[in-house]
Amino acid sequence: MSSDPVDQPVEGQDEPVHQILPLDDGVTAPWGFSAGGVTAGLKGSGRPDMAIVVADDVATASAVFTANRIQAAPVTVSREHLLATGGRARAVVLNSGSANVCCGPDGLQLARDAAAAAAEALGCATEEVLLCSTGVIGEPIPAQPYLDGIAPLVAAADPNGGLDAAEAIMTTDLVSKESAVHVTDDEGGSATIGGMCKGSGMIAPSLATMLAVVTTDAPLDPLVADGMLRRAVEATFNRVSVDGVISTNDTIVLLASGTAVTPPSPTAIEAGLHAVLADLAIQMVRDGEGAEHVIHLTVSGASTEADALAVARKVGDDNLVKTAFAGADPNWGRIIAAVGAAGVDIDPTGIEIAIAGHVVCRGGVKADFDRAAASEAMQAPDVDVRIDLGLGTERATFITCDLTHGYITINAEYTT
Amino acid sequence: MSSDPVDQPVEGQDEPVHQILPLDDGVTAPWGFSAGGVTAGLKGSGRPDMAIVVADDVATASAVFTANRIQAAPVTVSREHLLATGGRARAVVLNSGSANVCCGPDGLQLARDAAAAAAEALGCATEEVLLCSTGVIGEPIPAQPYLDGIAPLVAAADPNGGLDAAEAIMTTDLVSKESAVHVTDDEGGSATIGGMCKGSGMIAPSLATMLAVVTTDAPLDPLVADGMLRRAVEATFNRVSVDGVISTNDTIVLLASGTAVTPPSPTAIEAGLHAVLADLAIQMVRDGEGAEHVIHLTVSGASTEADALAVARKVGDDNLVKTAFAGADPNWGRIIAAVGAAGVDIDPTGIEIAIAGHVVCRGGVKADFDRAAASEAMQAPDVDVRIDLGLGTERATFITCDLTHGYITINAEYTT
């Protein structure tokens, strides 16, 4: 886990009866998993491009997939497999270098063949293999190198191989992203949750995509795992943005091995899962394409949580707000204009806005603040923005990054 | 009108029975109007910052205002005035340098005082004056220079003053924006429609806003004028984007003097209005902050027009699509991913995409195309993108620009 763990209690919990200990580890932190990465030759750079996460025995599996109507072949195949098994899996095979989307029947067949090859190497059913791909849209994965890479990949899986796997799924990512925690409850139960992810645009279809694999040694029923994963994703990955774009390949897989000897309460497990996903999500924003500042938005005083989230999301996706933060400009006018554009009923005279601790707008008009000091405070790598709507008691948070020349360079100058 | 008039027939018209002749003129092209600009000292740059458009006698007036819930004082006052008069006005007073929004009761009072001052100078009712402002949000307009500027502004109004007015409302605009046409029908009727606008972000709240004044000598009933204006705005200004952000001040005013001797059919008037707004809208995109390419999107083969427009708007607002065009990269994967993210039911296997005349995707997969030739064609200042969904017969168009380093520079480096 990174040095600044995000330890958020589960919503509705007054008094957590568990402790969350950050670990410096990743997807192989829990018992019962191994992982690895190999270079199969899918990337021009010659860097590692295939990864695997394997459970020692068939594990409970759940996944959340992209909401994009254009879905990659590995998404289609993974959906089918989870339905066929009722939420069980042995392994997740991931590749960077090509997204295997918009590649027609050949792409779909290649995904099926890859799952079959992995199943053969692992000695499990084909339906017990899940797949993730990331890379260029519409460019086929080189079939033979991909299929030839699978046996060595299975062979490379190791109980200490989490970092190798995390590195093999990077595309425009500058750093690999791992997180892990150990949770204990006051009944003496404990479990470990670990994960890895990649993504530096919320998506950049030609270069990046959000993929995550999360593991735990806690025993989870498939339906329970599904609910926990969806709630944790909604509160973490669904509340961050780099460029507001939805990938064709986004996938988050949870594998639960059930190998923990004295597992903790479901509440404790969910809190640990939430902590790992929140940590991975913020690592992704911090490594956002061209990002120089992470912006932590809190919208409070809303009539409903949905209103608060709509406002936070609109502000967090606004190019003018994001460029103002790139320039350390406490330009609250851009923020209040985005609040007004969120489609939510507001009362301008009730709005208060604080940037990096400086109240810049009060009662919907400019507050008396020190521009130079506010600008100075905005140069920190993490900047808090608090928007109070003055209407109610509901709130939501959202994390985004600034929009800089670096984003343009990465995404425009990657030309033919 | 610019050298490449956009001459679009009114929807539903099979055979236009009118001709549209582009004129090299602007808001004072129609009979019965004068306009002008002065330097009142509202801008630090010392450039002209107040403009007026005046009808010789009280004219039919209609306006479309921003959908933002945060609305500027001039928007509030103009709404009130149009309601009070039932759709009549004598003049529109515009200023750049400050948006007069989020300035509390003082800002509202200043707008009322400005309207009263203009009414006094013109000898009309205060309610017959409409107001528009553009500039920084939350920073008050310097009251005395603004009010002192009004009498000289009224005195400066001239039947040939359209360009002066267009120049006085510029902010980050690099060029002033005027358009005018003469319409004739086959019954011998004719009228002139002229206009001006400013805006180089669809909004950049601290620097820009979309403002337009359109005039005609055709006689129009207020209700008819309102319908015509709303339809024309929906088909033009509402189908362009620079950065997808909604201003607090956006306003489009139509003034109809009724001075044309033999006015043409309503259909001809509406076609002329549509042509002027379409031309102004495209001039605005062409002058978009940092824009190097104008992207003309056409989505066809949709089940409904609303679906076609939703897809076109999603593609047109997508930062990754826009950066790909900045790099002349025929990266159709980004386009199809945006299509899939539009929330519209689609069939990936029916999608065809052409960029600058090159079919890059057919049946939802990569077409056989010459990448280098497509990239070369994308270096033109105007690039056509055609997306056929293969589902039905409905279509929509949308115009956007690329996202470049220039946009970041303008909006990030405008710091405290």
TrEMBL record, chains A, B:
Substrate binds at T171, K198, T209, E289, N411, T416. Keywords: Acyltransferase, Amino-acid biosynthesis, Arginine biosynthesis, Autocatalytic cleavage, Cytoplasm, Multifunctional enzyme, Transferase. SUPFAM superfamilies: DmpA/ArgJ-like. GO terms for cellular component: cytoplasm. The record marks A208, T209 as: Cleavage. It catalyses: N(2)-acetyl-L-ornithine + L-glutamate = N-acetyl-L-glutamate + L-ornithine; L-glutamate + acetyl-CoA = N-acetyl-L-glutamate + CoA + H(+). It is found in: Cytoplasm. The keyword Acyltransferase applies. Gene3D superfamilies: ArgJ beta chain, C-terminal domain (3.10.20.340), L-amino peptidase D-ALA esterase/amidase (3.60.70.12). It comes from the Bacteria. The record marks T134, G135 as: Involved in the stabilization of negative charge on the oxyanion by the formation of the oxyanion hole. One of its GO terms (biological process) is ornithine biosynthetic process. The active site is at T209. It is an enzyme of class 2 (transferase). Belongs to the ArgJ family. HAMAP family: ArgJ. Heterotetramer of two alpha and two beta chains. Catalyzes two activities which are involved in the cyclic version of arginine biosynthesis: the synthesis of N-acetylglutamate from glutamate and acetyl-CoA as the acetyl donor, and of ornithine by transacetylation between N(2)-acetylornithine and glutamate. This is Arginine biosynthesis bifunctional protein ArgJ.
